[in-house]
Amino acid sequence: MYQTLKNLSAAQQVGVMFTIVFGLLLLASLSLFLLSMREHDDAQSQQTHLNRVADLSNLLRTSWLMIFVFWLAWLAGDATRLVLFAVGSFFALREFLTLSPTRRGDHRGLVLAFFVVLPCQYVLVGTEHFNLFTVFIPVYVFLALPVASALANDPTRFLERNAKLQWGIMVCIYGMSHVPALLLLDFPNYNQKNAFLVLFLVLVVQTCMVTQHLVARKMLHPPAAPQISGSFTWRSWSWGMAAGSLLGALLAGITPFVPGQAFALSFVACAAGSLGHLVMKALKRDRGIPIWRGEGKAVTGAGGMLDRIDSLCFAAPVFFHSVRWYFGL
Amino acid sequence: MNDPAAQLSHGARLKALASPLAAQLVSLLLLGIVRVLTGSQARWWGCPPKAEQRIYFANHQSHADLVMIWAALPKELRHGTRAVAARDYWTKTPFKQWLTSAVFNVIYVSRSRLADEDPLEPLIDALQAGDSLILFPEGTRGHMEEPQAFKAGLYNLALKFPQIELIPAWIANVQRVMPKGEVVPVPVLCSVTFGVPMQLQPGEDRQAFLQRARSAVIALRDI
């Protein structure tokens, strides 16, 4: 069977992979549906059961959505793919900035961020200006935006306002743009299979997050930083890391890495993703909201996107640069 | 067929045909833009969206409020709900006038009052015709955190049409999308929260009613 798979063309292999992943998701959804049918006698355990099912289905929906988007991204050509991720960045940044109170003086900076920095970054990715695209935001934009803000002549909480904008751009544009950049990495003897690399990253990070979440629910250990996250414990984190890295090693076949490398790179990506998620939680707590969508709050409308992609936004640049550095690409 | 009068009427007919189409296109385009920029979420907190005759009254911080609340209403309600807009600003250029009359179907009110004219008359006409209204009772855009004192128009309408539900609404964040003096809008999620319907109490005096209406709007901010 392995030989048959190996003899397929790159496109067919990617197709098989998506079929497998969709099949697994379908299985998970089916079993969850069956689980939701189970009835409990007393109301108390019925309620906890329902809560658990709702929680799991939420997780599953995120996974479906992510895989679906990456499937679309693979089907579409290079340009469409970039646009898809750029739109993702746009909505994520919109969400991020909605909850950071900006003042009138930030307007020009925000216009720059949305309508200049964001398209430029994706154009740089698309045209494979790798060296410029990795420094464009941290070097050039880092200086340009505060200048726009300073010219607005409003010193109130200047550092705080600019820091927030910079952070939003780093996470939502810079981090996110590294995902499509993976598609353009040029490995020798790995032609046209970079979609695997993106899927590898998403699967590994998502597995780490889901495992961490499930373990945290099962074992009630004291959280490492209760003020910031009630569910982050070192034990659940280690389980998540182990699950993600092991899956990475198992998936080495679809990547240009040998299992050892795949394990190490998955470990790095999972660490960045899960700890980045914790950092985003801290930002949310700072704003006094449990999730970005702000359920029941007047401040935001549709959303909750950032909750789903923040771990990826942190994992992607770290993974990208580790791979580039290690393989000298 | 070479009669110039016939040609003219032909041209006028074409224009009359094209205008609703253009209005339709522009309204779709605007809806798209508003959704991408703001999410234009309606939160029916105090009442469900219903095709009853209602007067919505909201805080006013930006010219975009008009577009925002128009986009947040469900399609079925949008047609029978007309916003009240200041004539001096919204008829300044032919485009603005066309936009507000053909696309938004607003009711113009004059802010500069002439002695023998009732500024509420067009509103009363619309209510008698069965339309719902969107009213910004502050009369002008506010720049403070809290809305300014409400003008008497809302009270007078409530007095005249006691059967119509008055629905407070809070429009959040729109002033951040396009602050005064800026031309390029910035994407920020906005929402319109609709509150519990209220009515003029028997014997309630004007000041008390306007105060109550204003607090009802402000109370929606923190929901």
Describe what you observe in this structure.
In chain A, 75% of the residues lie in helices and 0% in strands. Chain A is globular, with a radius of gyration of 21 Å. Chain A has helices at residues 2-7, 10-37, 43-75, 78-98, 107-126, 130-151, 158-182, 194-218, 234-250, 259-286, 305-327. In chain A, 39% of the residues are buried. Chain A is mainly alpha-helical and 329 residues long. Chain A folds into three domains: 10-75; 78-184; 189-329, no CATH class. By secondary structure, chain B is α/β, with parallel strands linked by helices. A seven-stranded mixed beta sheet of chain B has the order 1-7-6-2-5-3-4, sandwiched between helices. Chain B starts with a helix and ends with a helix. Chain B is 43% helix and 15% strand. Chain B contains nine helices and seven strands; from the N terminus they run αββααβααβαβαβαβα. Chain B is globular and about 55 Å long. The longest helix of chain B has 35 residues, at 4-38. The mean pLDDT of chain B is 85. Chain B has one domain: Glycerol-3-phosphate (1)-acyltransferase. The A-B interface holds A 90, 93-95, 97-98, 102, 104, 107, 110-111, 114-115, 296, 298-303 and B 38-41, 43, 170, 172-173, 176, 179, 182, 184, 186-191, 193, 220-223.
